[in-house]
Structures are given as structure tokens and as C-alpha cells.
Amino acid sequence: MKNLEVCIQITIKPTEARVASDQGATQVDEGHFRVVLDGGSRFDIDALEEGVLAVGFPAMREALAGALEAASREQATAVGGEKGGPAAWSGTPVSTRSMAK
């Protein structure tokens, strides 16, 4: 069994994009979420922290769901063989609905 590497990268940079009215993160691509903060927030630690959490939480949920799904498929293949036998995993499915506000 291989070890697991967990990585995350968050960038805060100037943009000409408009601020979204709901301040929630939007998914740009798989594992890539984005929120645009008002320019006046650049010295507001609370607003910056909320922005980081707004993009970090859905990214983490998506990564966790993907990792658990891959592990479940791997275990099912190992137990059931290549012919698609019964899966040994019997846990509760992971919810992938967005938790962003």
C-alpha cells in the first residue's frame, strides 16, 4: 500500500474580476475554487481569512470525497477481482454537496 501525499495551494492576488454578491466560492475547475473579495479587504484579516476558508473548505471536501471514492474502488477490485465481484466496503457514502455559504 502506498503512502498518501496531501497538498494545498492558496493564492491571493489582485484581479479585475467583479465581486460576487453572495461571497461564496465558485468552482473554476476540478479542485479549483475561487472567491473575489472587495479591494478594501486587503488589510482586513477577517475578510481575508473568510476568503481562504470559502475556497479551502469545498476544495478539501472534493479532495476527500475523491480519495475515499478511489480507495473504495481499489478495495472493491481487490476483494471482487477483475470480474466486478461484490465490494467489501459498506460505509456511508460521502456527501459531495457544497458546504460553501
Structural overview:
This protein has 101 residues and is mainly alpha-helical. The chain is 36% helix and 7% strand. It has one helix at residues 45-80, and strands at residues 26-29, 32-34. The chain has a two-stranded antiparallel sheet. The termini are far apart. The model is unreliable at 84-90 (pLDDT under 50).
Main features:
101 residues, mainly alpha, two-stranded antiparallel ribbon, 36% helix, elongated
What is the element layout, followed by pairings?
Elements: E1 26-29, E2 32-34, H1 45-80
Antiparallel strand pairs: 1-2
> Residue share in helices?
25-40%
Q: Determine the N-to-C terminus distance.
A: 37 Å
Order of helices and strands: EEH
Q: What would you call the structural class?
A: mainly alpha
The count of DSSP E runs of length 2 or more, i.e. the number of strands, is: 2
Q: Strand fraction band?
A: 5-15%
Shape call: elongated
Estimate the mean pLDDT confidence: 82
Tally of DSSP helical segments: 1
Largest sheet descriptor: 2 strands, antiparallel
Low-confidence spans: 84-90
Total count of domains: 1
Radius of gyration: 18 Å
**Strand line-up in the sheet with most strands:** 1-2
